[in-house]
Structure formats: C-alpha cells, structure tokens
Amino acid sequence: MKRRELFSITKPSFHPHPASPGVGRFTNALLRTHENKEVRFYDDLIRGKQVVVNFMYAECHGACPLVTQSLIKVHRALKNRMGRDLFFYSITIKPDDDSPAALEHYARTRRANLPGWSFLTGNAFDIETIRFRLFGMNHPGFDLDAAMHAGTLRIINDGTNCWTAVEAFASQKAILKHISWADPPKSYTDRLLESRVRQTLIDKDVKAYGYRRDV
Amino acid sequence: MPNKKAKPRKKIKESTGSLSRRDVLKIGAATGAVTILAPNIITSNKALAFTGETPPAEPSICATAPTSSPATTPFLDTFTAPFPAIPQELNPAPTEARNLAGGEAERANHQRWNEFPPDVEYELEARAGLHTFHSDYSPSYIWGFNGRYPAPTVLNLYNHPTIVRFRNSLPITTTTFGRNEISIHLHNGHHASESDGFAGDFFGTGFWKDNHYPNIYAGYDAYPPDGDEQEAMHSFWFHDHRAAFTANNNYLGLNGMFLVYDTKDPGHELATSGSLRLPGYYGITDFPIILTDKKFCLTENGRTELFNQVGGAAPGGDKWIVNGKIQPKMTVRRRKYRFRILNTGPAKTYDITLVKPDGSVGTVVVVGTDANFLEHPIPVDAGANAANSNSTTAPIVPGGLRVSVAERYDVIIDFSEFAAGSKLYLKEAQAQFVGVASPDPLPSGLAIENVLMQFNVVEREWWFPPDTTSIPSTLTTYPTLPSTDNTFEWQFVRDPPTANPRLFRINGQVFDAEKPSHCILKGTTEEWLLNNNVGGSAWVHPVHIHFEEFRVLKRFVNGVEVPVPPLMSGRKDVMRLEAGQGALIKMQFRDFVGRYLIHCHNMNHEDAFMMVRWDIVPDQAGLLNCQQQMAAHRKELEARFRKEEVS
User: What's the angle, vertex CA A48, arms to CA A47 and CA A51, rounded to 5?
Assistant: First the structure.
C-alpha cells in the first residue's frame, strides 16, 4: 500500500483534552441528524473534535439563511478538513417543528447538504440545555432568549479544550481566522514560518502605504 | 548583531526650568533611599526572577460554579504596592526592525526610532505562576508578568524612551480558559501602532515583542525639543488585548500598572522646580489600588483556584481583590496619601466611598481622572461636595466614586485629620462574600461584605516622610484645542429585542482586525459623538479610545444635552456611557500612524466583538486607500448577504 493511501483511509483519532468539561457540560443528549441518524451529542459529535456550532430553524427567513450561506462559503474554503477533523453542526431551536426530513429539505434547498455538516434535531429540553451550555454567558439577557446568538458561530475544539466564537456576519476571512484560533497547537517551527509570511506582508504594506494596513 | 554601546543614545537636554539629567539622578537616589525603608512594597526576590522557574502544574478546574468562594478573615493581609519593575540591558539589544533571528514576533519597524532610541529597557515575561490572594487560601494558579499578580509596576520618566520586551512563556496547553497568545496594550499610551498592543497583533508562546514607548508628550512635533508639558499623562496600565480572549487573560492576571513621571509629578515630594508636591513616593505615600473581582474554589490538588470555564465570559466574582489581596489592611501615617485607583475589570463597576470611624463618608480629593491631572482638584464626599460625585444613576451612592473598567481615579486622602488608632475603610457599594465576622468593630452602617480595605491610622515615625504641603488649587492647564477638521459618530448598540440575531455592534459592525471602520489623516482633529442612545440598547458601555486623550465637549441623556459632570471635565480615555447616554468628544491624532481601536472596555463585551479598528494614515494617498478598503469591505459583506444569493 502506498503511503498516501494509508493516510487517506486512516481516520483521525479523537482524544478529548484532559480538562474537557465532557458530558457534564455538553450533555450526551440523543439527537437526530438530517440524514435521520441517531447520534449522541458529546460522544459522537464533540468528543476530541473541532466543531462549529450554530442554532437555526427551518422556517427562519431572517438570520438563519444568511448564516447558512456564510457557512457554505466557509465550508468551501475548508473542504479538505471538513468531515475529517472539522465538523459543522446546525442545531434547530424549534425541534418540535423541525423533523429530520424538514432539516434535510432545508439543507438540500440551501445547498448545505455537505460532508462534515449535520443539521440536528431532538428533544426540546435537551436542545435548550445544549444551547445554554454552549452559549451560557451567565446573563439572563443573553440566556433566556432563544433567538439570541442566532448569528453567532460557537467554535469548540474539545481536543485542546479551546472555545471561541465568531459572528456569522463578519467577513469570511475573519470567520476562517477565528476557526483557526481553535486549531490544534502548531509547532514553533510552523508558527515561525507563518510569522515570516506575515512579516513579508507587513513590510510590503509599510513600503507602499507608509503603515501596516493588514487588510 | 549591532553593538549596543555603539548605538546613538538619546541626548538628554540640559534645560532651564524642566528636569535635567542631574535632577533625574537625584530623584532616583532619593526614591531609592526611601524604597529601602519602604514597609509596603513586596520585597520578595521572586519579583526579579525572569526565566528558568518551573511553571506550576496546571490547575484542576471546578466542574460547576461554586456557590461562593471559601470564607476569608478580614484584614489579615497587608496592602502592598506591586514591586517596581527593574530596568535591565536587553539581550539581544532592541532593534528598529523586527529581530527575526532573535525570536521576535512579526511587526512593522518602530516608528521614529532614530529620534527616540531607548534609554531604559525592561523585560516582562508572561507566564504561569502561583499567587496567594489571602492567607486563609492556598496558592492560586495565575498568569502574570514575571509570574506575578499584580505585575511589577513600570516607573518611567517623560522624554526617556523605553523598550519593554514582552516575552510569551505561557503554557502550550492549559486547563484554564486562558489563551496563550498575547498582545500587550499600554493603556492609554501615545505610541506607534506596532507598540500599541493592537487586538489582532497577538503572538504565541516562545516569541517576544519589543514595545517601544517614546514617553513623549502628545503633539511632540509642535513643541521641540521636549514637547508640551500640558499634554502630560501619568497613570497608565498595561494589559493583554488578545482579540476574543481579553477578559479571560486579564481575569487570569495579565495586567499591571505603568507610571510616567515628569517635572510636575516627579515621583518624590521634595521642593523641586515645577513640582506639585503631591504625595509621591511610590509604595510609601503613593499607591496604586488595582481592583478586580474573582471567584475561587478549593480543588483536590490542595490549591484554591480561580473559578473559570471555557466558553464562558469572565465569571462575576464574589471576592473583591485589592492589589492582589482580599480585604487587606494598610497602616497609614497621619498625613496625605495618594491612591491611583484602577479598575481592571473584567466587567464589574465599583462605587467607592471612604468611610470614617463615625460611619460618615469621608472626603477624597480627586486630582486626576484616567491618566491626566484635573485642572483643579475636585473633592468628593456625601456632604458639601456631594454634587461632585459621579455615582448619580442607579444605584446612587452618595459621595461615591463610580469607577468603570479601565478608568483611573487619582485621589488624595488626608489622614492627618484622624487620631492615631482610628480605622477608616474603603467601601464598595456591592456586597461580596466574606464568611467570617470582622475582627474589628465596624463603623455604624458599614457591613463587612462591603469593605474593600482597611486603613489603620498611626502617628508618623521620625523616619517616615513628613506630610506634603496642601494640594495646589491649580494642578495643570489644558492645551487649547485646534479647530475641528472632521466629525464622526460611533453608535454602541445591541440589536433591539425585536431584531435577530442580537449582537453587540459599533456602527453596525462587529470586530474585524483587518477592517478599518474610520480613516483619519495624521495631524488632524476630530469631534466624535459616542452614542449609546440607539436601537433600544439598555447596556452600559465604558468606551475606550486608544492613542490620545480626549476632552468632553457635551454630554447627552436620551438625546437631550446635560451639563458635563465635574469628574468628566478633565482629559480622559474612557467614557462611561450608560443606557441612553451620549458624549461629544474632541480628540487629536498626532505624531504616529497606524491601526488603533475604539471599544467597550467591559472586557466581556469587547470579547463579544464590541470593538472596531480605525486608522491614522500618513497622507492623502493613504487616506484614499484606507477609504477604498472600507468601501471594498462593505461591498463584500453586501454581496455575501444579497437576498437573491441566499434564496
């Protein structure tokens, strides 16, 4: 077997960070994907993985389609990683209305039925709990309103126990950058190489515009 | 490697009336002498250790929020000033361009390096350490500069350019919610952008970065060779500004105080020419009061850890921390003291009063707001000077000093009017959890839960510096502001309840490090309307603007002009905007170019992207280019969210 083939069939193994809050925080709720597959929230979806989570519902005509649209473009940029070490989860906040079929219809009509991207429904109480646990800001003004954070992408890497977030309405470059903030730690050598690239851009900017524009 | 000795050193000018080199040396000697006697400075040699210490084990994190922190005995620990940072000769020597081979993080060349070659050099290393917040507690895991909380205080002089080398030695992986990348902002230094700690310019473990602080008065170019003294600022603080993780890293301890002295405020109390002779010996009669709130939990490894959870904002604490200690006591002599109150947040606002032995509110004389002297001192108390209090909206605290995150209030308290043996208290309006009764009987009406710290008045010993002369009625005069070149409005909003998706925004935008939201030509003057009166927002935003101090021209409540409150009459760099409030401010953009920020300094809001970038550009071509970039970004977003593309 060729080396390349070996890599392509080896699935990455997912190990949670020792400090991961685990099922205690994430819950291990039983959810259903738009492909009507049963999944456990922590064990199957989060454990050791890097994920981007957002909340939506199928009949939403405000922010949700915009966020989905935004995620499609991000998916395009990251498609080599999607489904391998990076996953998108769009969870409905109206699970009573959104059956797996309804979500499948949403995903298909929005052209969001893409690898590594699951639309999820389940028990209303479980989903509310997950929403609180992922977005809980210890503030009633944030937490009690289901529409809150509809435009926020929660980014979690359970393998490094890094949580961050980004607004779906930021530029695509900004979203990609925020997702990369939760990437597994890079070696010093890799970071040095990246730093060199950035330095070249800075020097170019200063030469042309008199200051570091960084746009 | 250039030879450091061969580097052109800045010529220190012998000038009449201002500080000469000899004066500086004298001050140094005098301060040094008293420092040795100083009873109130932490003198552990740990403060001097830079590298090589084994970092402490990562903390076990409390799984769920503790109902309360463990109880603490009031007034057990002594109030101290953080140890002053020690200047050193940096190796490798600082350079104008980024020192790639030496491990420096990427940056643009230092601006005006040849004009302001560094006189003084420091290294502050961000790393994990242990700090004991109270003697009843076992040590807590923190992130601090040189492993300390609070960080060593940097003491500087105007016109003596400084390099502070910030080294990142934070752990590669952590069990805390901290992020091991840093960008250190000197709040509110007048510095070039590459040394300003821009939120997007963070660097990771293993790198360092030289921040170049020329310590010049703003508007330097118009007043050669020493700048305009009226532009003086004195009480700065430095803190991590890493985008989206500022609250986390500051909660873990990455902040400290930075004072800059000059003729007027020389760091001593001697009768030197031009000195205001305010209480001025750092750590003896002049103390920072660095406030923060934290929550603690006991963990199985025997440590008392800071409660924090990944994915959460910085948790609201139930312990008020004063210079790294819970409810400390301080011995004060019967004389005047200066306290530079600083709220490091991450989010809490303080309403502070001085409580006298009889339970009434004592007078604090405010001499400075944020980094600047007021033109005239403003006494604040609940009696004759009640109108000067800025605690004027709910919860109203008579005689209170309302201190928002990142604000500094430079106050003088005169203890000479109290008999030896009396005890005074600093009170915070909101109660904390204490759990142990006060060992001392408290003045009537004061609950132990509201006490920040205790002052024990004693007679002055023969060796302690005698009281200073009375506070001058005029502290400074402000420079005349030039005419306005441009006006701009910044709206601080959270989308209204009817809207979706309810985000914090400034002018409809969320933070993007690569997107300027306003372009300014270097050397111009602008009037900005800061407005928290739009879109039904009901949140408080302490707005901070980088780079230069501003003057408040007008204040608004629900769109109606109201008088500028006394404590907002001075130069400031943080403007508290409660719901419905607005302010018209005037600000200049001089000496340097680059990317700067305006943001809400409630660090949880800031991390929720309530921050935008504005640029100072060198010339018309730069202005045009900057405006084109803004237009291009707008276009990209509009195209991305066009209706037809969505459906």
Answer: 85
Which run of H or E residues covers position B594? strand B594-600
Residue A210 lies in a domain: yes
Indicate whether A175 and A199 sit together in one domain: no
| Chain B: closest CA distance from residue A57 (Å) | 13
Supply the DSSP string of B332-350, one letter for each residue. EESSEEEEEEEE--SS--E
SS3 B220: helix
Query: Residue B534 in contact with residue B605, Cβ under 8 Å?
Result: no
Cα B594 from Cα A22, distance rounded (Å): 43
Same domain, A165 and A192: no
Chain A: closest CA distance from residue B266 (Å): 35
> Does B618 reach chain A within 8 Å, measured CB to CB?
yes
Q: How confident is the model at residue B496 (pLDDT cuts 50, 70, 90)?
A: low
Whether B595 contacts chain A with CB within 8 A: yes
| Nearest neighbour of B609 by CB, restricted to A147, A162, A167 | A167
Indicate if A147 and A205 belong to the same structural domain: no
Q: In terms of domains, do A176 and A191 share one?
A: no
List the CATH number of the domain containing A52.
Answer: 3.40.30.10
Quick: pLDDT tens for B80-89: 999 999 999 9
Q: Is pTM beyond 0.80 here? A: yes
A7 within domain boundaries: no
Judged against a pLDDT cut of 60, whether residue B266 lies above it is answered with yes
Chain-chain contact of A199 with B106 (C-beta, under 8 angstroms): yes
What's the distance, CA B413 to chain centroid? 21
Closest Cβ–Cβ partner in B109, B175, B608 for A206: B109
Which tokens hold the place of B146?
């040189």
Backbone angles phi, psi at B151, to 5 degrees: -60, 160
Q: Given this model, what pLDDT does residue B56 score?
A: 92
**Domain co-membership, A29 together with A108:** yes
Phi and psi torsions of A55, nearest 5°:
-110, 140
Residue with tokens 């590594």: A116
How far is it, in rounded angstroms, from Cα B170 to Cα B167? Answer: 9
Alpha-carbon distance of A167 to B186, in angstroms, equals 27
The complex's ipTM?
A: 0.91
pLDDT tens sequence for chain A (215 residues) = 455 444 444 556 799 998 899 999 999 999 999 999 999 999 999 999 999 999 999 998 877 888 898 999 999 999 999 999 999 999 999 999 999 999 999 999 999 999 999 999 999 999 989 988 888 655 555 556 666 667 889 999 999 999 999 988 888 899 999 999 999 999 999 999 999 999 999 999 999 999 999 88
What's the confidence (pLDDT) of residue A89?
Answer: 97
Q: Using an 8 Å CB-CB cutoff, list chain A residues near B510.
A: 167, 169-170
Q: Cβ–Cβ of A152/B244 closer than 8 Å?
A: no
Does a structural domain hold residue A18?
Answer: yes
Residue A172 lies in a domain: yes
* pLDDT at position A9: 47
- Using the Cβ of B107 and the Cβ atoms of chain A, whether some distance falls under 8 Å is answered with yes
Q: Do A20 and A114 reside in the same domain of the chain?
A: yes
Cβ contact B248:B225 at 8 Å: no
- Give the integer Cα–Cα distance in Å for B355 and B342: 19
- The tokens for B533 are 């009166």
> Do A138 and A207 share a domain, yes or no?
no
pLDDT above 70 for B42: no
How many domains does the structure of chain A reveal? 2
Stronger pLDDT, A26 or B62, i.e. the higher one: A26
Domain that holds residue A196: 187-215
Which of B61, B604, B617 is closest, CB to CB, to A19? B61
Model confidence at B279: pLDDT above 60: yes
Question: Nearest-CA neighbor of B321 among B542, B85, B127, B79?
Answer: B79
Indicate which of A167, A175, A194, A201 best probes the interface with B, i.e. most B CBs within 10 Å of its own CB. A167
Q: Are A157 and A61 in the same domain?
A: yes
